[in-house]
Amino acid sequence: MQISARNSFKGVVKKVEPGAVNTEVTLEIAPGIEVVSIITKSSAETLGITEGKEVYAVVKSTDVMVAID
Amino acid sequence: MQISARNSFKGVVKKVEPGAVNTEVTLEIAPGIEVVSIITKSSAETLGITEGKEVYAVVKSTDVMVAID
Amino acid sequence: MQISARNSFKGVVKKVEPGAVNTEVTLEIAPGIEVVSIITKSSAETLGITEGKEVYAVVKSTDVMVAID
Amino acid sequence: MQISARNSFKGVVKKVEPGAVNTEVTLEIAPGIEVVSIITKSSAETLGITEGKEVYAVVKSTDVMVAID
Amino acid sequence: MQISARNSFKGVVKKVEPGAVNTEVTLEIAPGIEVVSIITKSSAETLGITEGKEVYAVVKSTDVMVAID
Amino acid sequence: MQISARNSFKGVVKKVEPGAVNTEVTLEIAPGIEVVSIITKSSAETLGITEGKEVYAVVKSTDVMVAID
Hints:
The structure is a homohexamer. By secondary structure, the first copy, chain A, is mainly beta.
């Protein structure tokens, strides 16, 4: 499946922290660059998200803000 | 200002494409890793977004999806 | 690719309206049920979105609100 | 109230799963077409979301992605 | 219609700036407090959004970030 | 840090309700105008969000919908 979301970063799962409804997933997409994602617990289980797994972080371009110092 | 959005990536603006209401901004946050952002044209002007400028890409963790091959 | 977004609806493209930066895409996912999507013009071109094409509408569950009469 | 969100689908609540802060609600908007929504537990209670209730799933068009096989 | 979005602010439209696909709407929800919204041009027309009109700004709680100085 | 999100409202924290992964924060941005935000528990702790603290509610303009009666 190819998706309209413009940002897709290959990475490795570093940490998985399940809550009641949501799970927090931390990925490393480049040395020292980590991305934190909140997905439903159900999705995390369906996708088999576990530490060390190769995954993609996917983000719509309208969800990326830009900031300056 | 420090924000609750968990993801903040330092980068350099590579491309700025203004539309009527929105502007598309492409940043490089690591060698070969580009992030595309859509912000309002007004924000792009206020922040002075131009090619070569050092900026941050900021993303809420609930806006990051996870995908597998 | 399999994604964490919980909602994925197969449909057919009914209308494509390109703007300067964004394109509005209307899909029919069931008889009489249409979904409107705004994606970047660039994504619409990359995915080859044209009338009649079979596509999926994909939505994160946190982006679905519930309303009552 | 009439809202700017372009997508509004009438449906019936099939499942309600409350967590600590959020509640996961599953609706059926057409035979075999289910939509999953995460709303705050407080909203679910205020709206009286229970199995069998007639509700609407509401989604902004910028939150709908398009994917192809 | 009553919606799960937790934030709903009554206000008056101060400015309407239509683009090709999207329209930027500025509302005043309290003296000196303005909210900027981007909705589709089509929604703005359907809702009859014009300067001086009484409207509501509606925001999901997951779309509100918190920042500190 | 200055961010592209167009909406930034100064306020005071009225209530903090932590869940397993997310925390619900209620701010007052003007007399009688409250904003509810869901952020990760981790962000709430990092920012030191407690009742009475002066903070900002930050919202992207694409995340603001408009509704009429």
